[in-house]
Design brief:
Layout: E1 3-9, E2 12-17, E3 20-22, E4 28-30, E5 34-39, E6 43-51, H1 53-71, H2 85-109, E7 116-124, E8 130-134, E9 140-142, E10 149-153, H3 159-165, H4 172-189, E11 197-203, E12 211-215, H5 220-238
Antiparallel strand pairs: 1-2, 1-10, 2-11, 3-4, 5-6, 6-7, 7-8, 8-9, 11-12
Helix pairs in contact: 1-2, 3-4, 4-5
Length: about 250
């Protein structure tokens, strides 16, 4: 399983993903689920993937092939040359459709699931910061003020903090803390989600620039946030008023 989330506020986008995959309790591996492309001063894109690993890796491979072909001067549209971020989401969706059409029947015939989803976030010079969620069928939706975040994978445990805290006007620093708490809550409740974590932050109007960080299992910053959150929750719980029984 996996858990990835992206939070869009007016100051930027925070993206966070775990790296654990498992095909059973005794078959656990690490795979990166965050993919980044930067063109300094022009555009930046970050993709988060969840679902069937063969499908998502196939999509990333197709996107990379188009990028390489475009760089060689071939007449190939890619996520780094398309005119808008909306078109970039369409290209991801088209790659998803192609890989699903090629592999879905074979995967499902073996008894496995082929469902996959991809979060696409980015900004290009002259355009606004945008956030999309691409489904297995290749269709997608865009984040709005009413829905300023997306989750894929094992999302239910990390949703409450996002619902309570995140709004378009939420400071980027608070959105980052909320994302880390959301991930911490998920890891505490589901062993199929685990460290290390990959973080990316795209600040609005800083075209082609992404701040990245990996949190290993012994990271003191993440541990400090996790312990502080647990401590404050316990204190808040004990401060609740008593419930009369009559």
């Amino acid at each position: 399983m996996t858990y990835c989330l992206a939070v869009k506020v007016s100051e930027g986008v925070v993206l966070l993903s775990d790296t654990r995959t498992n095909a059973g309790l005794d078959d656990i591996s690490r795979f990166r689920k965050m993919f980044l492309w930067e063109q300094r001063g022009e555009r930046a894109l970050v993709l988060l993937t969840a679902g069937n690993l063969g499908i998502t890796q196939g999509v990333i491979t197709q996107l990379e092939k188009a990028i390489d072909a475009s760089a060689r001067g071939e007449d190939e549209e890619s996520i780094l040359t398309c005119a808008t971020l909306y078109r970039a989401a369409e290209l991801v969706g088209e790659a998803m459709q192609a890989v699903q059409a090629r592999d879905r029947a074979r995967i499902e015939a073996s008894g496995a699931k082929s469902e996959a989803s991809i979060i696409v976030a980015g900004q290009r010079q002259g355009g606004e910061l945008r956030l999309f969620l691409v489904y297995s069928a290749g269709n997608f939706i865009e984040a709005t003020e009413d829905t300023p975040y997306f989750q894929i994978g094992e999302h239910k445990y990390g949703k409450p903090i996002l619902d309570r805290v995140i709004a378009p006007e939420t400071p980027l620093a608070d959105a980052l803390k909320a994302a880390l708490i959301s991930m911490d809550s998920t890891m505490r409740s589901n062993l199929s989600v685990g460290m290390p974590l990959d973080l990316a932050v795209i600040r609005a109007e800083q075209f082609g620039s992404v701040q990245c960080r990996r949190f290993e299992s012994d990271d003191q910053v993440f541990r400090g946030i996790s312990e502080a959150w647990s401590r404050e929750l316990r204190e808040a719980f004990h401060a609740l008023p008593e419930v009369p029984l009559t």
